């Protein structure tokens, strides 16, 4: 725009604007309507070049390549849950049969909502705060709620990375420090540590050596300095990866996203060569079809789909906002969704191959221990030698021989069998011991690796994989905070990122005290589930019912160059909102039915015990849910009653390389009306031909939709493909 133009002069003048926008535009350069969004003549313009021009003009960072962007989305969506949550749910909910409800819900809920978030981020090119302010100002609290949830999740998620860092450095020794119980001196006698003897070496190392855990959440016990140092290292890694935005985090993704697949494939090959691996995999994929009729299975599958793709956090929107506007985000959504699914299946194969090996080891140990008991009973004449089948050789006793001997003794000694204290030692029982989360990664898996040849190497690889999985997810989670805040409030990227990491580390000290693991459990169970479900439902409603599904589909057609499948229209408008509402209701019922509590490790008993949260912990728990959800009603009320400006009555026009854009200024209501319709028909700038483009059945022309309560400004009159203003 020329420096001496009338509009530019008005920007530096305090005089009241009396001219119509049409008068001001008369002094400006003519508009190239071929390239304008208002073009309805069917003439073509170079969409890619125009998108690149806008990108350069806005000076917004961009991905170096499509591969870097895809790896970032994969690194964000594929996280620790794929390794230690999905296999557990698969085992618990019917084995191979669980894959059916998961895949169905991935297609009807996960994929449409993931595509929706990618599309709005790419279309509006802002973080979550700016996107939802643009689409529906009254629901602008969605973006702030997403930021809060990201902060809560990031607080405890980085603690898990800290635990992995601790195990990673402890893996550089042979034998592994959790392979045997420690020996302590009791006077002149050396004895095995009692707590370890009652549990196991890996369990002892996790609870005592790593966490040094207290008996309850009420016993703080002070800071665990080892975990505090590891947490500092974890936040330093995240800060270094995030400090330059996608310029630094994008490069990290090349390693953090690809390395876990290398490790998983190596573990799968090694696992399949282990004795008993096939037993674990067969147990895993043996379908229990009756489970498919259980509503609880579908609820847990829907929850896993929801969290596996990172919906509602804002990270997906943040990453896609750095794309060019003609990027095929539909392809991206489909690719990332199914890579996520196949990664979960791959991780499940690895986990159950290793757990099958572990189950065989533990079953053999059980057979040996119980065979010694039987020999003792034979030597003391408690049992007769006639009960032992003639082919049984105690020096080479197999599980099959022991089971045969066990059934004979149980039949003959039916009245006194319990007094013998013999175990069945069934492989199926070992395989049915379901473990998840930290129990899988830091106890079950670590125990299995102690039996691997070259166990330190595999331990280093495993925990380096966990660090990278966690780091990829943390970069996406932190982007859900930094991108919208930097976009909205224009703070310095480096300063805000460093400050955010320091503040999070200081708040995160609550998780590295001796009772910290109980707070991790609390945050994991309650800080995100319900608030995020509400956030995603409102995202869906904002786009499909307030902004308008037809309008959104039309904009996607313009942006992508093809019309998305009609499936998405019905999924966004009906299927996804209904399914998410059912999921939210089920989650609320589950919270009400399940008493809020946690599994505490009791040192004296060397066992876990379920405890209820004390009153003060319940207050924290409820505060987490309320605080994460508070921006939603707060922003709605403030903007509904005009207590804060939402920019909906502030329109001006700027020209940027021939395209008409929205901008925020302080025009009065009558000035806005004058711009759109003009008080005098002759004053209205009318670049549009007398005919209009066909938008589909039941659609209105842009001018006919000007009074509809849709869009960023409460108007369906679309003037821009990218918001020029800062939202």
From TrEMBL:
Membrane topology: Multi-pass membrane protein
One GO molecular-function entry: metal ion binding
Positions bound to Na(+): 75, 78, 82, 340, 469, 473
Metal-binding as UniProt keyword: yes
A GO BP annotation: glycine transport
GO cellular component terms given for this protein: plasma membrane; synaptic vesicle
Recorded superkingdom: Eukaryota
Keyword tags: Glycoprotein, Membrane, Metal-binding, Sodium, Symport, Transmembrane, Transmembrane helix, Transport
Keyword Isomerase among UniProt keywords: no
Polar residues bias: start-end ranges: 698-709
Region of interest (Disordered), residue spans: 680-710
Family: Belongs to the sodium:neurotransmitter symporter (SNF) (TC 2.A.22) family.
Chief place of localization: membrane
InterPro entries documented for this protein: Na/ntran_symport, Neutral_aa_SLC6, SNS_sf
Compartments where located: Membrane
Transmembrane segments: 69-87, 99-120, 141-169, 225-246, 258-278, 301-322, 334-355, 457-483, 495-514, 526-547, 567-593, 613-638
Native source species: Apteryx owenii (Little spotted kiwi)
Protein known as: Transporter
Family matches, as Pfam families: SNF
